[in-house]
Amino acid sequence: MRPTFLPFAAPSIGEEEIAEVVDTLRSGWLTTGPKVGRFEEEFAARVRAQHAVAVNSCTAALHLALEAVGIKRDDEVITSPMTFAATGEVIHYFGARPVFVDIDPVTMSIDPALLAATITRCRRPKAIIPVHVAGLACDMDPIAAIARQHGLKIIEDAAHAFPTRYKGRMIGAIGDVTCFSFYSTKTITTGEGGMATTDDPAIAERMRMMSLHGISKNAWTRYEAGGSWYYEILSPGFKYNMTDLAAALGLAQLKKADQFLARRQAIARRYTEAFAALADCLETPPDAPADSQHSWHLYVIKLRLDRLNVDRDQFITELKAARIGVSVHFIPLHMHPYYRETYGYRPEDFPRAREVYRRIISLPIYPSMTDADVESVIDAVTAVCRSHAK
Ligand SMILES: Cc1ncc(COP(=O)(O)O)c(C=O)c1O
Prior knowledge:
Blueprint: H1 15-27, H2 34-47, E1 51-55, H3 58-68, E2 76-79, H4 85-92, E3 97-100, H5 112-119, E4 125-129, H6 140-150, E5 153-158, E6 165-166, E7 169-170, E8 177-181, E9 194-198, H7 201-210, H8 244-255, H9 257-275, E10 282-283, E11 299-303, H10 312-321, H11 337-343, H12 351-357, E12 360-363, H13 371-388
Parallel strand pairs: 2-3, 2-4, 4-5, 5-8
Antiparallel strand pairs: 1-9, 6-7, 8-9, 10-11, 11-12
The structure holds pyridoxal-5'-phosphate.
């Protein structure tokens, strides 16, 4: 057994990040300033988007995106139940209704065929939020075709999906707005942080304004030489701006994104190769097709419960006893009390999400894992499978 507990996730912070943050501290510019501007420019270039607006979380980016495309009370916003709290709650902020569409059980993302069927039953569909679960892109072509046909805006939840590619295109330059997360467990981190990218200048402008109280210009330019003290509130906005301290981390992390990705890909390859021997006990996650790229934010195995004499929760208990930190992504939104009580959803309404949920475990996958760490995860999973195979 491992001598120490292996955390489920850990950020990779090196001297470059520390130097960039210290530089910011010495500059005297702590809140939104020049480093946020640079981070936005470099991130936009990286995902090939025209505009990027840096904010303090992906949740904030999703909220601003729905506001900018004009979501109103009683509108319907379509998404997948297999997602985090944030995707659903931002819909609720507008008094709009989240309409869930069940998932493809292999990729765990929204099933375009079911989306097409669901939309015909909607009264006021306005937007769809595809979620690129684990960092594998949703099948965007049929989703975009359905959105076009019904006049829906596409707001991508790309919290897991940097750097992800779909058929040669970067996630970040496909939908009307794409929202990324830089939370501390994500593929690059600013501690807390997010980014909204878009090719539409009016949407970018609206999100930028609403991210800082709905005032008519960036607050920080007021204090520059030549800046004016005058501003106007054009709409009651929010306080979602990213700080230069966070952007300092982001700039350093962005430079390492390819190196981080290469390590995540190597770990995913090793897991998939090793778990081929456990094919009777578990399914490994799908990789992206040849013209696409998985970010490997998460590596999610699916237990074959009919072949094991334990359930997922006991499997996790035994992995924890072997000092391996794991997680579950996600408890489907429609199964949570709020969604059951408010919208009357029942667990069986989205049977694939419910069924997959019972089987999934997210294993550790992050750049600072050593080869020995990776082997210890493989050994622990193998041991639990072997001792409980039917
Ligand atoms: C799918 C998904 N969407 C949105 C978020 C929210 O991200 P943030 O914590 O940056 O607000 C998360 C966070 O883990 C997530 O997993």
